[in-house]
Specification:
globular; 29 helices; Neurolysin, domain 3; two-stranded antiparallel sheet; disordered N terminus; mainly alpha; about 55% helix; about 725 residues
């Protein structure tokens, strides 16, 4: 993987959405780097499977030296390319570029683990110190004029047309990563561009750490008398979480979605629901040392100034110029075509909930902290469907086995647990599996799973690749991982999760399968187009409701009996239940993100902008953004999703349309021919093919928005060009 400003961001951002760093004050020469004291973080990976990360030898004291050494090495490697006296060509410039940075790749694997999975005050201090240096490093690459001129010479040469299509795309992606990040600017503008990146790197890191601090600092401890309505499995997990924090005999509600969501769904204590709701949705917005509002304003101002240097009117124009949507207007059109139906559905949902509250004599008006609680009552009344009853059939380990089954049927993959101790891990919770081709027995890669929440681990769920597939120097073994924040159960107790969490589990596994199925030649071709890469993972969610998974893996955690057919039917009938809430909370975040980045940020007050924009959109008062602005890590902990959170919906249009192809096939969701086309055109090619072309190769046409509207139970709206 190459560490230009965009691509560098991808490495650390994959773990924590932090902005990409850069080297700055390292004056180490390549020779000095080679003579540096041995460092476990820079050492080539040893052991089986083509070498694996030495997670058991990670030492925080080695981080700064490792980063400096890795950056110095890559800069020396790039200088050698830039100063090559031979005329630039594909091999001595583009392929040579792809070979650089291997030491830094290894270091960033460890750095990403500390960022996302094992953060501590000590690491955060290092992160804050190194962020501007990493940013400077990134700028040193994109502003290496000799290097860029060689890349441009290859990109503009007639020889380009004689290369394979994937080599042409590789050349374009590398050229664009320079050109769109300031390589074409004059000296004065380049200097300011680099300064801005350096300032942003500090702010992105500070933003992320502020959110993590609020998640760690706000834990609600309950007594036994305050547990009314909470399911037994949740109570046991809360007791275990309290014990882990030295509060045995109490029950901890942590400030993460996996704890907040079920509490708001089941707790009968309205005052406590309000407290938990406020704590969660006010992360980064408490007017204290961890408040993010001023940081957001600074980030937006710097981003706006930077893209003006490149000739764009606003940040969103720049960000979407190489995405599927192409323009912010296209992305906005898609979201606004769905928004009216979403908020209309919320109005219906609130009316249903208010009716139940009135019938119960609760004497309340539905507020945001009531939504999940009364929605669950409506679900039980309308569909006779109890989410807690469903959870009894959703065991974490069984769902993992179900994912393996799906991967076997669609991708021909076989998963086998690696014996403990054979592969180093960074925490006892982490388990590892071998992935092989079922037919040939050939090793594909390893899959790491880190499923449980803990202090120092960021909230949410995500996927990482510690090593991606390439073939230009011989086939490499993929090292892929999934990370979640499920609340660990009591010892010996199975972990039961909600239906939404089960869908997320499948979703993130889709990212892992995307990495494991890669068949590209060069590292850069494993990069993604942000409004496309969520498509593959969203699509995998659909297999959770297939008969094969339901009948074999959704079994009661006590009796072992399969989930009853009548309960499955209720789940299917309720598939679009509460869709107004889910769509509105997501779209509100995506719309605010895009509008923030289409606006001149001078004098902007983030809280006021959020409040006023949502009011103008007609945002229902009973619903809040899924990610309020002061905690919107996708957008302000880095630049991976900035002005791009809409991409989940863009990808979901593709998802719904592709799912329709399976639904219409003779073999349904396990149809061999459609599955083969899926792997060939949509998974294995990664970014070696333009996403729009790849989708047409799979479907035979462009995607249509109709299937998305149908899936969400909304009336068909105005056609949107994809």
């Amino acid at each position: 993987m190459k560490f230009t400003s965009t691509l560098v961001a991808g490495v650390v951002a994959a773990a924590l959405s932090v902005s990409l760093p850069t080297l700055a004050g390292s004056s180490q020469s390549a020779q000095g780097a080679q003579q540096a004291v041995a460092n476990n973080l820079t050492a080539p990976w040893q052991g089986p499977y083509g070498g694996v990360p030495a997670f058991d030898k990670m030492e925080l004291a080695e981080v700064k030296q490792a980063l400096n050494e890795g950056m110095a090495q890559q800069l020396a490697e790039l200088d050698a390319i830039a100063n090559n006296p031979a005329a630039p060509n594909f091999e001595n410039t583009i392929v040579a570029y792809e070979k650089t940075g291997k030491t830094l790749d290894r270091v960033f694997t460890y750095y990403g683990i500390w960022s996302a999975n094992l953060s501590s005050p000590e690491f955060r201090a290092i992160q804050q110190e190194m962020a501007p240096k990493l940013s400077e490093f990134s700028s040193q690459i994109t502003q290496n004029e000799k290097l860029f001129e060689r890349i441009r010479a290859v990109y503009e040469s007639d020889v380009l047309k004689t290369l394979r299509p994937d080599q042409q795309r590789l050349t374009y992606l590398i050229y664009d990563s320079f050109a769109s990040n300031g390589a074409t600017l004059d000296a004065k503008a380049k200097a300011r561009y680099a300064e801005i990146n350096q300032e942003l790197s500090k702010l992105h890191t500070k933003f992320a750490n502020n959110v993590l601090a609020d998640e760690e600092n706000y834990v609600l401890y309950l007594s036994k008398e305050q547990l009314s309505g909470l399911p037994e499995s949740f109570v046991k997990a809360a007791a275990a979480a309290a014990k882990e924090r030295g509060k045995e005999g109490m029950y901890a509600i942590t400030n993460t979605r996996s704890s907040m969501d079920p509490f708001l769904t089941y707790s009968d204590e309205r005052a406590l629901r309000e407290k938990v709701w406020n704590t969660y949705y006010n992360r980064g917005d408490n007017g204290d040392e961890y408040d993010n509002n001023a940081i957001i304003q600074q980030i937006l101002t710097l981003r706006h100034e930077r893209v003006k240097l490149l000739g764009f009117d606003n940040y969103a124009q720049w960000r979407l110029s190489n995405r599927m949507a192409k323009t912010p207007e296209n992305a906005m059109d898609l979201m606004q075509s769905v928004w009216p139906a979403a908020i209309a559905r919320v109005k219906e949902e609130v009316a249903d909930m208010q009716a139940i509250a009135d019938a119960r004599g609760d004497k309340i008006k539905i507020a945001p902290w009531d939504y999940r609680y009364y929605a669950e009552k409506v679900r039980q009344q309308r569909y006779d469907l109890d989410s807690n009853e469903v959870k009894q059939y959703l065991q974490l380990d069984k769902l993992r086995d179900a994912m393996f089954y799906v991967a076997g049927r669609l991708f021909n993959f076989d998963f086998a647990a690696v014996p403990q101790g054979k592969v180093p891990v960074y925490h006892p919770d982490v388990k590892v599996w071998e992935v092989k081709d079922k037919t040939s027995g050939e090793l594909v890669g390893l899959w790491y799973l880190d499923p449980f929440a803990r202090q120092g681990k960021r909230s949410g769920a995500w996927a990482n690749s510690y090593r991606s597939h390439t073939s230009f120097e011989g086939n490499t073994t993929v090292l892929s991982s999934n990370n979640s924040n499920f609340v660990k159960g009591a010892p010996g107790e199975p972990v039961l999760i909600s239906w939404d969490d089960a869908e997320t589990y499948f979703h993130e596994f889709g990212h892992a399968l995307h990495a494991l199925s890669s068949d590209v030649a060069y590292p850069t071709l494993n990069s993604g187009v942000r409004d496309y890469t969520e498509f593959q993972s969203q699509l995998l969610e659909r297999w959770l409701l297939t008969d094969e998974v339901i009948n074999n893996y959704l079994v009661h955690y006590e009796t072992g009996k399969p989930i009853p057919a009548e309960l499955v039917e209720k789940i299917k009938k309720a598939a679009t239940f509460n869709e107004g809430f889910k769509t509105t909370e997501y779209l509100a975040s995506a719309l605010i993100d895009l509008k923030l980045h289409m606006t001149d940020p001078k004098g902007l007050d983030p809280d006021a902008f959020e409040r006023e924009t949502l009011s103008a959109l007609g945002m229902p008062s009973e619903v809040v953004m899924r990610h309020r602005t002061p905690q919107f890590g996708h957008v302000f902990s880095g630049e991976g999703y900035s002005a791009g959170y809409y991409g989940y919906m863009w990808a979901e249009v593709l998802t719904s349309d592709a799912a329709q192809a399976f639904a219409e096939a003779p073999g349904g969701f396990y149809d061999k021919d459609v599955a083969a086309k899926l792997v060939k055109h949509l998974f294995s090619v990664r970014n070696a093919v333009d996403p729009a072309d790849a989708y047409r190769a799979f479907r035979g046409r462009d995607a249509k928005v109709d299937a998305l509207m149908q899936d969400r139970g909304f009336p068909l709206g105005t056609a949107v060009k994809m």
